[in-house]
Specification:
Elements (H helix, E strand, L loop, with lengths): L16 E11 L2 E10 L3 H8 L4 E11 L7 E15 L4 E6 L2 E5 L2 H9 E9 L8 E10 L6 H9 L10 E6 L8
Antiparallel strand pairs: 1-2, 2-7, 3-4, 3-8, 4-5, 5-6, 8-9
Length: about 180
Amino acid sequence: MLILGSICSGIAYAEGIRLRHLQVEPVEQAWVISASYQIELPPDLSDAVKKGIIFHFLTEFNVTRGRWYWFEEKPITAIKKIKLSYQPLTQQYRVNVGALTLSANSLEEALIQVGAIAGWQVAELSALDNGRQYDAMIRMRLDLSQLPKPFQINALNAREWNLASDWHQFSFTSKYRSTGK
């Protein structure tokens, strides 16, 4: 049962990364996210990848529920790590998502693979109470802490290295069929 459909209008974006599609739904016994980001690297970052610098992208997803008597509850916090690298010997880009490795012939093709998130299980179905209202937010960013030290220092002074989408915030009511376990 789908709880949140495609979100295409009114999505805020930051330089370089823009959310194009988002879907959150219960599948079997888990909450699953499918999302699509459009990623455009500035020329300096494209050159850095081509010269062998490995880029680590993080997609962060949080679900919260406000409580009048205490701090808000955070039933779901999930991070997906995606690694982008260039292999000069084969002249191909590699995208690593967990144990899965994908190859691409061009940087544009590799960035499409980095921005495509499908079937990401963020929590068990029981993490959210059925019929309750929740607030959620998601974003993708380049993890500057994973860059080599000289590039981390450069990133502090150069705005184009701070590549991140804005947090996309939305509310939803969790609806799923209980399996009666």
